[in-house]
Design goal:
Elements: H1 2-8, H2 11-14, H3 22-34, H4 50-62, E1 68-72, H5 77-88, E2 92-96, H6 100-106, E3 110-113, E4 117-121, H7 129-136, H8 143-147
Parallel strand pairs: 1-2
Antiparallel strand pairs: 3-4
Helix pairs in contact: 1-4, 3-4
Length: 151
């Protein structure tokens, strides 16, 4: 079930074949609360939607109380809000995304990469249209640039 998946992230701290102690159960429940999945803690994972499964996996990572969270293309606004809260609480959050408009609006810092680091700065400082064109190898009339406010 959902809670067991979150607890599986703590296996390294529990040891193999050991039962979770109250502090482990509390960490799992707290992580599920953070991702708004507490009400589904007893549900079988195969009954969850894709977005709910993604939130369970984030809870699995959060149960470890990480100082750094690495994410590959999170998609839901709920998770983005959670990542902002974690960042404000001192957790370093590094994610890759193809949702550039959302990243520009929500991230404190952006790094534009194309085989090498082209630029890293707050979004307000990344207004050079040529930089975005080089990063994504697009022409000046590409709709991406319009969506990013570069037209």
């Amino acid at each position: 079930n959902v809670r067991q998946v979150v607890l599986s992230g703590l296996t390294g701290r529990l040891g193999w074949l050991r039962r979770p102690r109250p502090e482990h159960l509390e960490a799992a429940d707290c992580a599920l609360e953070q991702v708004s999945m507490s009400d589904l803690r007893s549900r079988p994972v195969e009954q969850l939607s894709g977005g709910q499964r993604q939130r369970v996996l984030v809870a699995r990572a959060l149960a470890l109380k990480p100082q750094l969270l690495l994410l590959d293309m999170p998609t839901q606004e709920l998770l983005t809000d959670l990542f902002k809260e974690l960042s404000q609480a001192g957790v370093a959050v590094l994610m890759s995304t193809h949702d550039l408009v959302a990243a520009q609006a929500q991230c404190e810092y952006l790094c534009l990469l194309n085989r090498t680091d082209l630029a890293c700065a707050p979004p307000s400082q990344l207004k050079d249209k040529d930089l975005w064109m080089r990063t994504f190898q697009v022409r000046a009339d590409n709709p991406l640039l319009q969506a990013l406010g570069m037209s």
